[in-house]
């Protein structure tokens, strides 16, 4: 059973249709939403909103706002929402350069500084989403593309780091008993 997704900005209704799943950038990390999700109201961060319909995945570059989740409906109220396929990568890169120049110019007014930072963040999100859409930028975590000539997907290589905890400072790496008993002098 699908869930209704509505993406609304102050200017327009950016998207409204039934989807199978939604992953969106919450203020504290990504949120995954499936049909019959528990009711939820959360702030949005800046990032990529992805949704799956059938076998296809689409994405939006989202900056700020709120999300309201009900069992059969997700309403995203975002400051900006740009469909990945419609993002002009050159314009987004120009916006990034303009925002970086404004920050380097040494803005004095806090409001101007905040505005330049917000514009830079929005431009960076648009660039990242557009590059992923066009296969240019870094890929998402998870599965990697097959190596040249490879026919199957591989999972990421396991970590080579040790899973053993590091002893805390002041403790010996000896037995537990030695760590518990007071040192004897003499």
Largest sheet: 8 strands, mixed
What do the pLDDT scores average to?
A: 75
Portion in helices: 10-25%
Number of strands: 8
| Gyration radius from CA atoms, angstroms | 23 Å
Q: What ranges have pLDDT less than 50 throughout 5 or more consecutive residues?
A: 139-186
What structural category arises from helix and sheet content? Answer: alpha+beta
3D architecture notes:
This protein has helices at residues 89-104, 110-133, 176-180, and strands spanning 3-8, 13-19, 21-26, 29-33, 40-43, 46-53, 56-70, 73-83. By secondary structure, it is α+β, with helices and mostly antiparallel strands. It is 24% helix and 33% strand. The termini are far apart. It contains 3 helices and 8 strands, in the order ββββββββααα. Strands 1, 2, 3, 4, 5, 6, 7 and 8 form an 8-stranded mixed beta sheet that branches. A hairpin with a 2-residue loop joins strand 3 and strand 4.
In short:
The chain is an alpha+beta fold.
Topology (SSEs and partners):
Layout: E1 3-8, E2 13-19, E3 21-26, E4 29-33, E5 40-43, E6 46-53, E7 56-70, E8 73-83, H1 89-104, H2 110-133, H3 176-180
Parallel strand pairs: 1-8
Antiparallel strand pairs: 1-2, 3-4, 3-6, 5-7, 6-7, 7-8
Helix pairs in contact: 1-2
Defining key terms:
single chain, 186 residues, alpha+beta, eight-stranded mixed β-sheet, 3 helices, disordered C terminus
